[in-house]
Amino acid sequence: MKAIIFSAGKGERMRPLTLTTPKPLLVAGGRPLIAWHLERLAAAGIGEVVINTSWLGDQFEPALGDGSRWGLRLHFIDEGAVPLESGGGILNALPLLGDAPFLVVNGDVWTDVDFAALPRQPAGDAHLVLVDNPVQHPRGDFILQDDGRVSDTGDAPRLTYAGVGVYRPSILDGWREVIGPTEGAAATPPQFGLAPLMRHAMKRGRVTGQHHSGHWTDVGTPERLAALNAALQAV
C-alpha cells in the first residue's frame, strides 16, 4: 500500500509560525509533525509516500530527504501557488498512487492511530478513522453506524473525521458530476474538495469507518501546537 500526506495548505490559522515554515514541518516533540506520520507509515509496512506541496513547498525535500532514513521512498508533488484541495490533490497524485487502495493522512494532525490496523482493502470506496469531537468542533462530522458504515444523515451522535483514511481511486469516479460546474473544477489541474465525494459515496453505502479512542490532535493553532509539544515532551 502507498500513502499520501496532505501538505499543501497555507496554514493561515497557524500564523505567524507558518509565514516561514509550512505547517507539516512545524516541530512537536522534537521532530516535524510530518515525521511522526512517516515513522508510523514505515512501521505499518508502507513503502512509498506521496507528499503534495504548495505553500513554502521547496522546504520539504531538504528537510525530509528521499525518505531512506525511515525506509521509505518519498515523492514530492508541487501543486503550484494555489493548492488543489483534497480531491484535486488526490486526482493529481493518482499516477503515483496507482490503482490499488491508498492511505490518506492530513499533514497537520498528530495521532497514534495504528496504520497497520486499517483495512488494506476497504469494503467500499473509503474507510475513515473517526475520533471524539474536540472542543473546537463539537458537532462532529459523520455518524458511525452499528454495522460499520459511515453516514452524513440522521440524528445519532456524530464523530469527527480524523484526517486519516483508506481510499480506493473509485472515490473519484464521476467527480465532475458530483462537484458540479465550479471555477475550481474547470481549472487545469482541477481544484476541488474531497468532502462532496465522500458524502456522495456515503449515500450509496460505500463508506465504512472505525472509532479511534486513542490520541489525536488537530494542530490548527499555535496554542494547540504548544500544548501538543508540552504533552510529547512530558512522555
Describe the structure concisely for a colleague:
This protein is an alpha/beta fold. The chain is 24% helix and 24% strand. The longest helix is centred in the middle third of the chain and has 13 residues, at 85-97.
Cα distance spanning the termini: 31 Å
Number of strands: 13
Q: What is the structural class?
A: alpha/beta
What is the topology, as strand order, of the major beta sheet? Answer: 5-4-1-6-11-8-12
Biggest sheet: strands, sense, closure? 7 strands, mixed
Using only CA atoms, what is the Rg? 17 Å
Low-pLDDT residue intervals, each spanning 5 or more residues? none
Mean pLDDT: 95
Strand percentage: 15-25%
The tally of helices reads 6
- Give the overall form: globular
Percent of residues in helices comes to 10-25%
Describe the structure.
- This protein has 235 residues and is of the alpha/beta class.
- Strand 4, helix 2 (60-64) and strand 5 (73-78) form a beta-alpha-beta unit.
- The protein is globular.
- It has helices at 33-43, 60-64, 85-97, 175-179, 195-203, 222-234; strands at residues 2-7, 27-28, 31-32, 48-53, 73-78, 102-106, 109-111, 126-131, 143-144, 150-151, 160-167, 207-211, 216-218.
- The longest helix is centred in the middle third of the chain and has 13 residues, at 85-97.
- It has a seven-stranded mixed β-sheet, with helices on both faces. It has a two-stranded antiparallel sheet with strand order 2-3. A two-stranded antiparallel sheet has the order 7-13.
- It is built from six helices and 13 strands.
